[in-house]
């Protein structure tokens, strides 16, 4: 599931262009053989080209390997990691999570709370963003998802040494 993990980290914004290129370049420089798609990742100029580079590998992985987590749950985890690293503001994480708050995405975040409703409350009263109880509520909802993103990051790192 390595191509899937890489794409999710990038699509969520956790990895940026330099990160995915460094990851691919490391594979190319340290391994005697790499799969073709890794060269394409190294050369990808944006997220669209990255998606094209990993597309076939992601399909192959999903056919042959079992993934225990939905991509949307992993994305929520990456958003939370960016939030605790101060790379996303509270408002931004709420905006992004309201996009993930859809049963069709496969994310289980919508079972806890409707982020669109939270977004409407913030839009109506910006002071909510400074309320410690509100911040604690968002943190409590998102924190469990970080372990999915951390596991995927660990697998990306381990792949480098396989």
In total, the number of strands is 0
SS strand fraction: under 5%
Helix content: 55-70%
What is the succession of H and E elements? HHHHHHHHH
Outline the biggest β-sheet. Answer: none
Low-confidence stretches: none
Number of helices: 9
**Mean pLDDT value:** 86
What general form does the structure show?
elongated
For the termini, the CA-CA separation is 14 Å
Radius of gyration: 17 Å
Structural class: mainly alpha
Structure report:
The longest helix has 18 residues, at 47-64. This protein is elongated. The model has no long low-confidence stretch (mean pLDDT 86). It has helices at residues 2-11, 17-30, 36-43, 47-64, 71-84, 90-100, 115-124, 132-142, 146-160. It is an all-alpha fold. It contains nine helices and no strands. 69% of the residues lie in helices and 0% in strands.
Helix/strand layout:
Elements: H1 2-11, H2 17-30, H3 36-43, H4 47-64, H5 71-84, H6 90-100, H7 115-124, H8 132-142, H9 146-160
């Amino acid at each position: 599931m390595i191509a899937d993990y890489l794409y999710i980290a990038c699509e969520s914004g956790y990895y940026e262009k330099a990160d995915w290129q460094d990851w691919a370049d490391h594979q190319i420089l340290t391994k005697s053989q790499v799969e073709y798609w890794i060269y394409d990742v190294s050369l990808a100029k944006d997220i669209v080209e990255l998606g094209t580079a990993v597309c076939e590998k992601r399909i192959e992985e999903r056919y042959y390997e079992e993934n225990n987590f939905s991509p949307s749950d992993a994305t929520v985890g990456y958003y939370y990691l960016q939030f605790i690293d101060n790379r996303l503001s509270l408002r931004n994480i709420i905006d992004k999570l309201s996009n993930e708050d859809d049963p069709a995405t496969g994310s289980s975040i919508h079972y806890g709370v409707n982020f669109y409703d939270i977004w409407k409350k913030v839009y109506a009263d910006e002071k909510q963003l400074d309320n410690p109880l509100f911040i604690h509520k968002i943190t409590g909802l998102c924190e469990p998802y970080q372990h999915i993103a951390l596991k995927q990051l660990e697998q990306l790192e381990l792949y480098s040494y396989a």
